[in-house]
């Protein structure tokens, strides 16, 4: 988790201090981190101690610890964005940089903070996954990029920034999982799985844009 937060800090500094587009920075750093990962590990999975696997393989009152942690994170971020000054300033920065700056918000700090939180959560996901699987395989997260986009978009996260719903993202994850398992049950061609998910993302974005356009016309 510390490594994830540090990686996010690096991304935030590149974006704010060198004024490089955030998409370019995150894409470039992703390839750098993937290269470091493969170079350090040699592509060999690491076995984790049995004492470490209890987080991912055990629970309390029949509820997996992973689910409990997920609910706690959901609650923490819902509180952050709804009730804290930091969270509201971060949303303001994401929504309109110029308006946020004129309101006295330090946009650079908000952007760096957002990237640190993103890296921290990525690190948490890696910890929970390794604990559940009992090993840490270097290539495990390579297919998670499109999933993270899909879940966030389905959950109502604004592509232009300033709009986020932790609960919506949680529900988006459930919807994504149900659709994926539904396609498997229907014996859909697995090679076209990303096509179906891509269509779902495009449909979700289109509906969101149509609502926005209709709302503007009504106002």
Q: Care to give the gist of this entry?
A:
The protein has 219 residues and is mostly helical. It has two domains: 1-138, no CATH class; 140-219, no CATH class. The protein is built from ten helices and four strands, in the order ααβαββααααβααα.
How many angstroms does the end-to-end distance come to? 45 Å
Using the alpha-carbon principal axes, give the shape: globular
Percent strand? under 5%
Parts with pLDDT < 50 across at least 5 consecutive residues: none
Helix content: over 70%
Major sheet: order of its strands? 1-4
User: How many β strands by DSSP?
Assistant: 4
Q: What's the pLDDT, averaged over the residues?
A: 85
Helix/strand order, N-terminal first: HHEHEEHHHHEHHH
Structurally, the number of domains stands at 2
Number of distinct helices: 10
Largest β sheet strand count, sense and barrel closure: 2 strands, antiparallel
| Class by alpha and beta content | mainly alpha
Radius of gyration: 19 Å
